[in-house]
Amino acid sequence: MEVPCVRVEREDGERTRATLAEADLIDDDYEITVADGWLYVPVTDPDGVPDEYVLVERAVDERRTQTTPAELLEFEPSYERLGRAALLDEDDPDRARAIAEAILESDLPVETVLNKASKVKGETRVRDWELLAGAGTEVVHREYGCEFALDLAEVYFSPRLATERHRVAEQVRSEESRSSERARQGPGASAERAFDMFAGVGPFVIPFAKRGADCVGVDVNETAVEYLRENARRNDVADRVTAIRDDVREVASEYEDWADRLVMNLPHSADEFLASAVTIAGEDCTLHYYDIQHEDDPFGPGERAIREAAEPEYEVTVETRHTVRSYAPHELNVCLDVRLER
């Protein structure tokens, strides 16, 4: 039968699907279909679809009922998906193996199952994993139109932060807006310059670059920096990405007054790097500062630390106080979007 669908070009399919899924608009009773170079995404409420998308009526197949791990186990297991890997956090080894077997027997597109074997540790924030199924700990993850290769045993990466990364990336001026600005301001206008002080494999840097920014990503983890370079190539933005293996405090002076946008996603200790952030910030810079604090005052400590580091050299304006997620009982992972104007 014909149902309302959003029609997009295939290369924009993942970004569109993710946007529609976040708005709870995808009709799960029908299959997403590819035909003649177009992707058709069935939607539940055509009136709720943003005007930027093309709506059509299209005959699509009803979705085949899939076997889930919960149906095989008769309880709802907890796991995260990262590419074609499932990530468990189970203390009981027998329960972990049972869940792994059910995941592999289900219709989930999963080849690897890993169980957390330690907490995040060390300067590079990696953890140990128990391999329950599959060939290893390297995965390829896709989010919002970007592709990331990474090795979970060697680098830090959280799939839970995909929506937050997208929220920030959407603030970067797109290719189109930069072209319009150059037309207004003349040939001197340049691309936005973005600096990630703890870049990892590039989950902020890569989408920034895809939106037209010139990016610098710094990390102390040599393996993460190697993946950052690979991911820049995978996403065709290598010409816009500079990857540096170092402590950002050692390279800040080389990028003095450089950045239009700064990311500080090191929640437990970002305040220790604010002096370097002030060095790197340009005349008018947006700072995305991540923190973990008690729910009674989740934003105050970060704001006070930023003001202490940046004032009076900069006028400090907190534009957004945003709760990313609950981190632990009575503790919140938050982000301050702060404008620094010299």
UniProtKB/TrEMBL annotation:
Catalytic EC class: transferase
GO cellular component: cytoplasm
Name of the protein in its database record: Putative methyltransferase
Organism whose genome encodes this protein: Natronococcus occultus SP4
Region annotated Disordered, chain positions: 168-190
Domain SAM-dependent methyltransferase TRM5/TYW2-type per the UniProt entry, residue ranges: 79-342
PANTHER family: TRNA (GUANINE(37)-N1)-METHYLTRANSFERASE (PTHR23245:SF36), TRNA METHYLTRANSFERASE (PTHR23245)
Keyword Transferase tagged: yes
Biased composition (Basic and acidic residues): 168-184
PROSITE patterns, per the entry: SAM_MT_TRM5_TYW2
Segment forming the signal sequence: none
Superkingdom: Archaea
Enzyme Commission number(s): 2.1.1.-
Assigned keywords, A-Z: Cytoplasm, Methyltransferase, S-adenosyl-L-methionine, Transferase, tRNA processing
Gene Ontology BP terms: tRNA N1-guanine methylation
Gene3D superfamilies according to UniProt: 3.30.70.2580, Met-10+ protein-like domains, Vaccinia Virus protein VP39
Example GO molecular function: tRNA methyltransferase activity
